[in-house]
Amino acid sequence: MGEYNVSIFNIAYSVGKIADLVDSQLTGHHRRVAYIAGRIAEELGLTTQERDEMVLAGLVHDVGALSTQDRVDIFDFKGINGGIHAEKGYKLLSILESFKDVAVHVRYHHIRWDEYPKQEEMLGGNILYLADRVDVLAQQQSNILLKSEEIRTQIIEERGKMFNPKVVEAFMRISKNEAFWLDSMSAMILAPRCEYYKNIAFTEDVMIQMGLFFSQIIDFRCRFTATHSSGIAAVASELAKLRAYSQYECTLMRFAGFVHDIGKLAVPIEIIEKPDKLTDEEYSIMKIHPYYTYQILSHIEGIGKVKEWAAYHHENIKGTGYPFGIQDSGLDEGCKIMKVADIFTALTEERPYREPMKSEKVLEIFKRVEQDEEDEEFSCLVEVLKQNYDNLVAIREAAQRDAIRRYQVFIE
Q1: Is 177 in a helix, a strand, or coil?
Q2: DSSP output for 134-150
Q3: CA distance readout (Å), 155 to 33, 177, 236, 332
Q4: Residue 194: its pLDDT value, please?
Q5: 243 SS3 class
Q6: What is the Cα–Cα distance from 149 to 384, expressed in whole angstroms?
Q7: In Å, what is the CA distance from 379 to each residue of 21, 228, 396?
Q8: Could you give the angle at the alpha carbon of 48 between the alpha carbons of 193 and 93, nearest 5°?
Q9: Any long-range contacts for 135-141 (C-beta under 8 Å, 24+ apart)?
Q10: For position 234, what pLDDT does the model report?
Q11: Can you list the domains of the chain with their CATH numbers?
Q12: Residues 6+ apart with CB under 8 A from 25
């Protein structure tokens, strides 16, 4: 299996789709902000690279809005708390080398222009701020063409206060035409597309960076989920190694472990953390998460089998798993490695409502799963797990200790 290439634009686009999962009110918000920010940058005569940075920043700007309060703050036009999720977004995006410059724009996208210590150096952040606020105002209107002048008036009133005068003037020029509003509000057009940022090699270092980035979006919603994906990533990678996968394939497996639960952003945290048995309705909501994992990863071309390895961890060869009912040859060994790693990590890690299970209990549960699966390949993986049980526990614990340290830095 050779090295892949991935599109930076597609990564950013997928992050915007992730934000859509967190709150349905945000659906299309990131694409619209990306469009408006790109148009303003173009109108200001910025370079292609600078314009593309604004498009990327628009697509990812609210990635740090992980809590309910963060999402409430987004819709307050002059809200003073937006800087909290902006700082979280900056910390998350700084993990990715390709998003270092974008991260700076995101960090400052809720700071008023008249409060900037060095105003001209923060042009990108202010472009993003204005684009973001325009979309917030637009979503409060039932007929954008009737209300566009009202929005333009609100923006120009903040000239020299919330917004850089040059940015306001550029916006006023491009927003005169009805087509601008129709294009930006449709969320169907995202132009100009990024020309400067195209593909990067999906090297092992890039995979680890991206994996940590996505896992922190998933897990850092609260203290009790802060280490889960890191544990599964470490166990899955080690199982792949024990099954003689190449080093590159093992890193792909680690990346798949990091992202396997990204669809859980569509599941309320109250359900994820519930200590008691889920109701039928709650369970039906929980079952949607692999579907959304698959859909999010579908936006990132060039990641090989990662999409299937990550999203099929609740499937089985009988076709009775969820949510796709994949069976037989549709499930390769990598999917089953992820399933074993997921079960093992869930049982052996500490949960807010119980201590880690002892090895005897864990293996008893695996025996029952084996009997239900009736899958020789799955049973072979369970045997590998048994033979390397203590080492896998140690690997999981080390990975999760690192994750909790990262979480502590993140919330400081």
Answers
A1: coil
A2: HHHHHTT-S-HHHHHHH
A3: 15, 16, 51, 54
A4: 63
A5: coil
A6: 66
A7: 35, 24, 21
A8: 70
A9: 135/29, 135/32, 135/33, 135/36, 135/184, 136/74, 136/75, 136/77, 137/77, 138/32, 138/181, 138/184, 138/185, 139/25, 139/29, 139/75
A10: 98
A11: 5-180 (1.10.3210.10), 204-411 (1.10.3210.10)
A12: 71, 75, 139
Length of the chain: 412
Q: Walk along the chain (412 residues) in steps of 10 and give the mean pLDDT of each run.
A: 80 86 79 94 94 93 77 64 83 93 94 80 92 90 88 96 96 96 76 65 92 92 85 98 96 97 88 87 95 93 92 95 91 97 94 85 96 94 97 97 92 80
Whether the upstream peptide bond of residue 165 has omega within 30° of 0, thus cis, is no
Six token digits for residue 201: 């090699």
Distance CA 358, CA 172 (A): 65
Token readout for 140 is 């409060």
Per-residue confidence (pLDDT) for residue 191, from 0 to 100 = 47
Which two structure tokens, joined as six digits, stand for 215? Answer: 């896992």
Cα 300 to Cα 9: distance, rounded to the nearest angstrom: 9
Tell me, what amino acid is at 397? E
Instruction: At 138, list the tokens.
Output: 């637009």
Residue 319: what are its φ and ψ, rounded to 5°? 85, 15
